[in-house]
Amino acid sequence: MDSLVIATKNQGKAREYREMFAPYNIDVKTLADFSVPIKINENGTTFLENATIKAQTVMARLGVPVMADDSGLVVDALNGAPGVHSARYAGDHDDQANNEKLLRELAGVPPMKRTAHFHTTIVALKPDGAKLVANGRVDGRILTSPRGKNGFGYDPLFYVEKFDCSMAELTAEQKNSISHRGQALEEFLQHFAEWWNK
Ligand SMILES: O=P(O)(O)OP(=O)(O)OP(=O)(O)OC[C@H]1O[C@@H](n2cnc3c(O)ncnc32)[C@H](O)[C@@H]1O
Ligand SMILES: [Mg+2]
User: Fold this and answer.
1) Which residues form the active site (predicted)?
2) Has 71 been labeled as part of a binding site?
3) I need a labelling partner for 119 at 20 to 30 A (CA). Which of 16, 62, 138, 180 fits?
């Protein structure tokens, strides 16, 4: 079985990649599997810049092929916020505080103007410089109160028309089938073998 290092500290993302890579017999490792502490300065201004910083930093440290995911929630009525700042929108990396801030910022905005999307950019790098980039997105709307316990991050506030429920009310399989991360991984996998065997 091949193993692939994903440059993430987010257990929610790690779980979703493990689920999605399972049929391909690829074992997913994350930063939690390595004892070396790796400091990553996510100071880019785009998802692509941040995903590249994560992949580059971890690959330089471990010397193995690395895949990174930078993702976030883009809300139209907030001019694209929280965007690349999604993880620390309310200050700390705290999902509940982020969700509460999002509801405050959107107070009084009617349902039809609460349109938003999740975005993921994946960047994979090999020590020889071979690079693979993929993107995914899913559209929805921001609810006025949280619903559901599954997923992570902003999922309880993200309404998905196709299933008529929040992202956090979907099963893992349903979320992965429509999510920004699932879409990005689908594109990634189309080119994965060529990149991996290069
Ligand atoms: O950088 P790593 O270590 O991978 O973990 P992170 O949580 O900091 O990840 P990002 O920098 O990509 O920030 C993404 C944030 O966007 C939100 N997010 C991303 N994907 C999500 C999803 O599938 N469902 C809900 N919220 C999501 C969530 O708040 C994440 O913390
Ligand atoms: Mg991050």
Assistant:
1) 70 (proton acceptor)
2) yes
3) 62
